[in-house]
Amino acid sequence: MRYLVGMFTNILKALTGHKVHEDLPEPDAALALGALLVRVAKSDHSYQVEEIRRIDRLLAHINGLSIVGAAKMRATCEKLEKRAPPTEIFAELIREGVDFEDRLMALEALWQVALSDGIQVSEEIEIVTRVQLALGLSEADNLTARTRAQESP
């Protein structure tokens, strides 16, 4: 896992030309997923309150955080997302760092954010599909994750 963190930091530096700022922690699979959740929410150029709340709830649930801790993590993820590499490279960090069930859960979380504002736009669906492929998940896995997301409160 330490290798992935170092690799991610190097990718960020190489692709963006930015140093990873001291105010940001070294990224790991949890922060990569959080940044992808933010990316999906922002992909339609409309970052809605419903999407932010959903991200906070997901980060709290997935990482065992309070809602305040999740909001702080989301704020960090928002900063990381601005400096993040292309979606596929970002998703590969998750793929390399977690098992199949966790990748499926990550895809479900992305669908929850994409569907949270009640409006399905092609930009959000495109990012979720790109992540699905980068995570090494099948169309059947994608359908399962989307169905679970639709059934989630």
TrEMBL record:
Domain Co-chaperone DjlA N-terminal: from-to ranges: 31-144
Protein name in UniProt: Tellurite resistance protein TerB
Biological classification of the source: Bacteria, Pseudomonadati, Pseudomonadota, Alphaproteobacteria, Rhodobacterales
